[in-house]
Amino acid sequence: MNKKILPFIKSHANTILIFFTILFIGLSVIPMFAQSLKIMNQLEQLNNLSSTSYEIGRDRIFTEAEKSYFKGLLEELRFENSGRNSLKINSKIDMVLFSLETGDNDNLYRSLLDLEADFITLNHERSQVFRIFAILMIIAVFLQMTVTTISLLRNQKIKIKHQYEEQKRTALQAIRDKERKKMAALLHDNILQDLAALSMQRDIKDSPEVLNYLKSTMDRLQNAIQSLNPIHLKSHGLIRSIEDYISSYTHSGIRFDIQTNCSCQDLPDEILEVLFTSALELITNAIVYSQAENVNIILKNEGDHFLMRIKDDGKGFQMPKTDRELAAFSTSYDYLNHRIRYERGKLALFSRPGEGVTAEITFLIQ
Predict the structure, then answer these.
(1) Is residue 44 part of a domain?
(2) Residue 268 domain flag
(3) Residue bearing the bigger pLDDT, 322 or 123
């Protein structure tokens, strides 16, 4: 759940911030607006009271029903304004009620006008606060929209830059692949054929030692050609292709162990090629540089990922801390890292002096 929610919040952070900004200011302004409307209604009621008082005249005595109507409206005003300026308003209401009880209509009319003036002032103050909040809301929304626009433009610029870099990497990788295949063809059609022709000569055949050395050289050259352009990978499959490669090292005394729980046939051709060439590179490193005696190769599916782990018991090395240090330490591992990342995979290396090297390559299975 969190894996889905967190990326959504991150990608829509500005929109969410705008929403909550408007919501917060709106929740603050709406009660003020409602209070302002209520005060305007109360002003209308006071105006009606003062008009009624004026029309009644100086000598008219209010009936009980009229007094009850006056008192009900005034107590309602007192209740609804029990807060800011309540002391001042209450004293004015008390003055109106006193004038109503004593029958002093002149003072009643003046008190009502005075109370109405206080409500006008209160309504003006509320309106000022409402306008200030409205202006703040407009400014906040404008600023947030400006920030959002700038962020979108920046993200678009970064996206365009990444697309350009991706296209550049794709073009470079295509050039590298073309050159690798060209080099493999040159080695196969020229040097390997020349060595094969040489091995057929009578002088060579009469010298077993030279012939064996020549055949060993041809095997190593064939492996190099296969790593440059694995033409048999699709037909033979990943596992058999790796087995064919390590078979040329059986005479060296190195023990290989391959474990797998899958056929690896469903993987895309690009990933198969990367896995194969990476396996060849890591096996060669284990034999030539790590001086390993045992090499363990694991190929398996782990949920929605495919894992290839190659572990040796060689001399190992001190792990570089960054990709830059890794590139300076070994061009071989640096090339593997870039090639694997190009196909959206991950390379993880683990090593310590005297503890061998473990390389894990993972790809997401669609």
Answers:
(1) yes
(2) yes
(3) 322
d(CA 260, CA 303) in angstroms, rounded, equals: 14
> Among all chains, which residue has been given the structure tokens 């001190």?
318
For the segment 198-256, what is each residue's pLDDT rounded down to a tens digit? 777 767 666 777 777 777 777 777 666 666 666 667 777 888 888 888 887 767 788 99
For residue range 319-350, what is the model confidence (pLDDT) as tens digits? 887 777 776 677 778 778 888 888 889 999 89
Mean pLDDT, residues 310-323 taken together: 86
The token pair at 110 is 């003046």
Which amino acid belongs to residue 51?
Answer: S
Nearest 10 degrees: Cα torsion 343, 346, 352, 356: -60
The strand pairing partners of 348, in sequence order, are: 360
Query: CA separation (Å) from 37 to 44, 55, 80, 115?
Result: 11, 27, 12, 17
> What is the rounded distance in angstroms from the CA atom of residue 231 to the CA atom of residue 221?
15
Cα 147 off chain centre by: 19
Q: Work out the angle at residue 115's Cα, subtended by the Cα atoms of residues 110 and 117, and round it to the nearest 5 degrees.
A: 95
Q: What is the CA radius of gyration of the chain?
A: 44
Residues 242 and 145 grouped into a single domain: no
| Token pair for 152 | 């979108």
